[in-house]
Here is the input.
Amino acid sequence: MPVMKFPRYLALIWAAAWLPCIAAAQGVPGSTSRPASRPNILLVTVDDLSCDSIGAFGCKLPGTSPNVDQLAAEGLRFAYAHVHTGACAPSRNAILSGRYPHNNGVEGFYQVRNINYPVMADLMRVGGYFVGIRHKVSHSTPYHPYQWDQVLDQAPDGTRRHGKDAASYGESVRQGIAAARAAGKPFCLNINVADPHKPFHAEGRRGETIADPHAPSRVFTPEEVVVPGFLPDDPVVRKELAHYYSSVRRADDGVGEILKALAKSGEAERTVVVFLSDHGMPLPFAKTQVYHHSTRTPLIAGRRDRRASHGPGRRPAPHAARHRGHRTPQGVGRPHDPSAAQGR
Here is the structure.
């Protein structure tokens, strides 16, 4: 295996995103390259979303994810990607450290302070990037507070952004890009959309329908949802699934706002976008379990300025995560011992 500059999991994702465009890049190796020569990184996650809730990954309910579907059509879709565990903090720390939960110490929802390994924020910051994060801040590093250049949970006037407000994610991206420009650095932004994590859209604590000021662009009804085979087809289940799929659509609205902000910034041509969920839906036999729907994730990677030849729903690289012979793109991050990263 050739030397990688990132923990192996992220290195493979980002290399796959960058390789189709590598000929166009004029990056200079190492942290001394000019900021404009290095790609920006936009890592977008959604919270508690099953892979097959996304249209490009086979969702049988039409209209759940038009923005993510478009991203999949333009990028590289991983048909068999799985996260390491079906719980938020251990999953996110595995992704961002390149280590299994039992090796990075984050096996639950608690602080692990005496770490002897770097995480994404460390590697990118030392590599000359401006590193920012929105939402899931305490769940994305072994301990909190951590050394991010900027936490994007608050607007410039100090107002805290609501996690269920789709438009606020675009605002966070604009704020992060502006801060990176002011610092004269390429950006690495980790934007974590709060949906479809509970509370679902318009669902109360006892399952009742309530008013919700943060409405998605489409609300699904119990009659139209498709019940997964591992859940009973029951009126109560259908009602909760309607709330869930409406929250999936609201998450997709947030992704749309993120991509719109990126496009308007003029940085899309220099940005690698990575999208995935931390684990499956917050319903039985998915979240916190070890079933197929617990860990399968809708992983997409790509550059927004380059349209691949495949259309939506195709599987351009089902085994891309297992490819050999690729190095991390020049100019991204800083060198890192590949023996410290785990998995394939």
